[in-house]
UniProtKB/TrEMBL annotation:
One example GO MF annotation: FMN binding
Its EC number(s): 7.1.1.-
Domain of life: Bacteria
General function of this protein: NDH-1 shuttles electrons from NADH, via FMN and iron-sulfur (Fe-S) centers, to quinones in the respiratory chain.
Protein name: NADH-quinone oxidoreductase subunit F
Family: Belongs to the complex I 51 kDa subunit family.
Underlying gene: nuoF
Subunit structure: Composed of 13 different subunits. Subunits NuoCD, E, F, and G constitute the peripheral sector of the complex.
The entry's keywords: 4Fe-4S, Flavoprotein, FMN, Iron, Iron-sulfur, Metal-binding, NAD, Oxidoreductase, Quinone, Translocase
Stretches of the chain forming a coiled coil according to its record: none
Catalysed reactions, semicolon-separated: a quinone + NADH + 5 H(+)(in) = a quinol + NAD(+) + 4 H(+)(out)
Length: 451
């Protein structure tokens, strides 16, 4: 898998001016440890934040830069930071890094943690300074064992250099950082489920309000940010708001750069740091190289399994939240998947819905019962045993499990690809109920999760 920030059509070398997240990457893929990171201006932004900026000024700078969450929801980071209490008497507060990257087809945070662990630590250090948090946790997906090893080593290096712990950089500010590996549940990507899991409780989302900024981990004010989000903070502080806003392409309402990728049967699957506003066609053709010989693009997802399917004619959409919304879905994590013309959509959706049904926390009825129901219907259709009305029932479930109908966003994300698949490829679903129609790919052999 390519983990670079340039592709066949763009041989421009990475630089700090254009690739704030990835310019420090080594060509051999090895981690950038402390000495090399500092030689590449590492922790310079942290020193600036500690020496020259008031804590509220850091928050305002991030807000003015327009940084948004990179985990998929896209909530403005500076606004989220501004929700933390101003009361200085509330001196116990926490910063949590959401590194529970379990969205299928997404691996961007893994690359940052494995190869640039100090970039995340610096981002958390500056954020902790701004939020007045004295302790931080990196809640890491349990399967990311290499990332855990690299992060723990980087934490120890930072401690030894006086960049973590007591009286950091002589400022009188204390910040401890811990790496906490989770048990491997998709639902922990929801911030309050993550908090429950960190506390040793069952990973169920919490009722909001109160929001974590008021009542978070162990009942204290807490801010939760994604890995890639936090990794943007040093460049914003180091280079300023105007520079950060200048990175995106014209027409994009989002600022900065984004780790984007393409997987599937493309010639050059990979991950690249690109400006917001690049078109999906550029990403697909110039970077991913288009489809492999013998395969044709049937449809694609723009950002993980929880985003809706789009058709080849949608490739001219710009890759930013509003640009993808114009063609009917969400950008999500920004790592796209190409579906080739040999794939039957019923089998693909049955596999996806099995994953989402299994990962439901079971807290609310629509999600707990609705997702397994969709799996049963899809399995019957996949076997050619579907009954008249099954497609209408599936569409009904898409509505019943949509935004605002469930306790958290798990079920709405789960049914979004289902609704779009039926919208664009209904004949393939109908083929599992009535006689197969000419030109419809045959139902694939059932996909077995874990096989």
């Amino acid at each position: 898998m390519t983990l670079t920030s340039f592709g066949p059509a763009n041989r421009i070398a990475r630089s700090a001016e254009t690739h704030p997240l990835t310019w420090r990457l080594r060509d051999d893929g090895e981690p950038v440890w402390l000495d090399e990171y500092q030689a590449k201006d590492g922790y310079a932004a942290a020193r600036k934040a500690f020496a020259d900026m008031a804590q509220d000024d850091i928050v305002q700078t991030v807000k003015d830069a327009g940084l948004k969450g990179r985990g998929g929801a896209g909530f403005p980071t500076g606004v989220k930071w501004g929700l933390m209490p101003k009361d200085e008497s509330m001196n116990i507060r926490y910063l949590l890094c959401n590194a529970d990257e379990m969205e299928p087809n997404t691996w961007k945070d893994r690359m940052l943690m494995e190869q640039l662990p100090h970039l995340l630590i610096e981002g958390m250090l500056i954020s902790a300074r701004a939020l007045k948090t004295y302790r931080g946790y990196i809640f890491l997906r349990g399967e990311y064992t290499t990332a855990a090893v690299h992060l723990r080593r980087a934490v120890e290096e930072a401690k030894a250099a006086g960049l973590l712990g007591k009286n950091i950089l002589g400022s009188g500010f204390d910040f401890e950082l811990f790496v906490h590996t989770g048990a491997g549940r998709y639902i922990c990507g929801e911030e309050t489920a993550l908090i429950n899991s960190l506390e040793g409780r069952r990973a169920n989302p919490r009722s909001k309000p109160p929001f974590p900024a008021a009542v978070g981990v162990w009942g204290k004010p807490t801010c939760v940010n994604n890995v890639e989000t936090l990794c943007n903070v040093p460049a914003i502080i180091g280079n300023g708001v105007d520079w950060y806003k200048s990175l995106a392409r014209e027409g994009s309402e989002d600022h900065g750069t984004k780790l984007m990728g393409f997987s599937g049967k493309v010639k050059n699957p990979g991950l690249w740091e690109l400006p917001f506003g690049v078109t999906a066609r550029e990403l697909f053709e110039d970077y991913a190289g288009g489809m492999r010989d013998g395969f044709k693009l049937k449809c694609w997802q723009p950002g993980g399994a929880g985003t809706g399917f789009l058709l080849p004619e949608h490739l001219d959409a710009q890759m930013y939240a509003g640009g993808i919304a114009k063609v009917g879905t969400r950008m999500g994590t920004g790592l796209a998947m190409a579906v080739d013309d040999s794939v039957n959509m019923v089998s693909l959706l049955r596999n996806m819905e099995q994953f989402f049904a299994r990962e439901s926390c079971g807290f609310c009825t629509p999600c707990r019962d609705g997702l397994p129901w969709s799996v049963k219907l899809l399995m019957a259709i996949e076997k050619g045993e579907g009954q008249p009305g099954d497609i209408e029932t599936l569409l009904g479930l898409v509505g019943f499990l949509g935004p605002g109908k469930t306790f958290c966003a798990h079920a709405p994300g789960a049914v979004e690809p289902l609704g779009s698949a039926i919208k664009y490829f209904r004949p393939e679903f109908e083929a599992g109920i009535a006689q197969a129609k000419p030109g419809v790919p045959p139902l694939a052999r059932p996909i077995v999760i874990g096989a």
